[in-house]
Amino acid sequence: MIEFHRVSKTYRGVRALDDVSFTVPPGTLTGFLGPNGAGKSTALRILAGLARPTSGSATVLGRPYAKLARPGYEVGTLLDAGALHPGRTGREVLTLGALLLGLPRVRVGEVLELVGLSGKEAGQTVGRYSLGMRQRLGIGHALLGRPRALVLDEPANGLDPQGIRWMRELLRGLADSGCAVLLSSHLLHEVEQVADHIVMIGRGRVLAQGSLDELGRGRSLEQTFLDLTADTDRSPA
Ligand SMILES: Nc1ncnc2c1ncn2[C@@H]1O[C@H](COP(=O)(O)OP(=O)(O)OP(=O)(O)O)[C@@H](O)[C@H]1O
Fold first, then answer.
1. Per the database record, which ranges form the ABC transporter domain (predicted)?
2. Rounded mean pLDDT of 52-56?
3. Is any atom of ligand 1 closer than 6 Å to the C-beta of 16?
4. What mean pLDDT comes out for the span 69-77?
5. Burial 31-44, CB ≥16 within 10 A → b, else e
6. CATH superfamily, domain at 2-84+149-229
C-alpha cells in the first residue's frame, strides 16, 4: 500500500503540492497524471525519501521511506533513468544493487532477462545505452528485491512501441501479482490501457481521482485530462 496523506510541499514560496491525498492499494496500478509542473515528480520524490514534505505524510506499507526496515524489498523506485552512472556496465549496476540487498548474483541474470537486456548489452557501459535501454535497466534495478510497491516516474520515456507494450505487460503482471504500482506518465493512451485507477493533479492539487469509468463517464482519458487541466497553467499558485 502506498499512501499520501494531506501532503503539501513549498519550495521558497512556491507551493508545489497542496494537500494531496490518495492511496494505491496492493494489486492495483495507479496512473499519476498532470501537466508539466503540476507536482508529480515532487510527490514521487517525497515518497522515495528524496524530499521532505512541508506537511502531511507519504508512506509505503505504513511507513515513510526513511523508516522502512528493508527498503529495497519494500519499494522499488525509478525516478530518473539518466541518473545511472555512465561509466558502469548494466551488469555492474545490477550487481551492486544485488550486493546491497544481500541477493545472490543469480538474481542479476534473472532481472536482465526480465527487462530484455541481452548479455552483450549488459556488458556495455550505461553511457553507451539508448534512453530506452536505460529505462529497462532502471526498471530492473527497481525490481531486484521483488518489492511490494513500485514507483515509476515516466518509465515509458524513450521506449519504442515494442518496449512500451513490454512495459505495459510487465507492470500489469506485477500489479496482478499483488504489487502496488504508482506510475507517472504523459502518455495518456498508455495509461488508459494499463491503469485501474487514475489520480490527476494540476498546480499541486488533486483535480480528480477514481477508476477510468468514474473519471471518464464515456469520455476518453485525454478529453477528461484536457477538460480538467484547462485552467491550470504550468506553474503552481
Ligand atoms: N527543487 C526545487 N526547487 C524549487 N522549485 C521546485 C523544485 N522542484 C520542483 N519545483 C517546482 O515545483 C513545481 C512542481 O514541479 P514538479 O517537477 O514536481 O512537476 P511535474 O508534474 O513532475 O512536472 P513535469 O511533468 O514537467 O516533470 C514546479 O513549479 C517546479 O518548478
1. 2-228
2. 97
3. yes
4. 93
5. bbbbbebbbbbbbb
6. P-loop containing nucleotide triphosphate hydrolases (3.40.50.300)
Check if 100 has its Cβ closer than 6 Å to any atom of ligand 1: no
Question: Hey, which of 11, 153, 154 would you mutate to test ligand 1's pocket, going by the most ligand atoms within 8 Å of its Cβ?
Answer: 11
* pTM reported for the whole predicted model: 0.92
Q: Label residue 22 by pLDDT band (50, 70, 90).
A: very high
Residue nearest to atom 26 of ligand 1 (CA): 36
Distance CA 122, CA 114 (A): 13
Tell me if 202 CB under 6 Å of ligand 1. no
Q: Retrieve residue 53's grid coordinates.
A: 514534505
User: Residue 224's pLDDT is what?
Assistant: 86
Q: Which cell numbers in the block locate residue 137? A: 535497466
CA distance 55 to 40: 17
Residue 32 CA, ligand 1 centroid: distance in Å = 15
Give me ligand 1 centre to Cα 16, in Å.
6
* 234 confidence band (pLDDT: 50, 70, 90): low
pLDDT category at 187 given cuts 50, 70, 90 is confident
Exposed/middle/buried for 116, CB within 10 Å: 0-12, 13-18, 19+?
A: middle
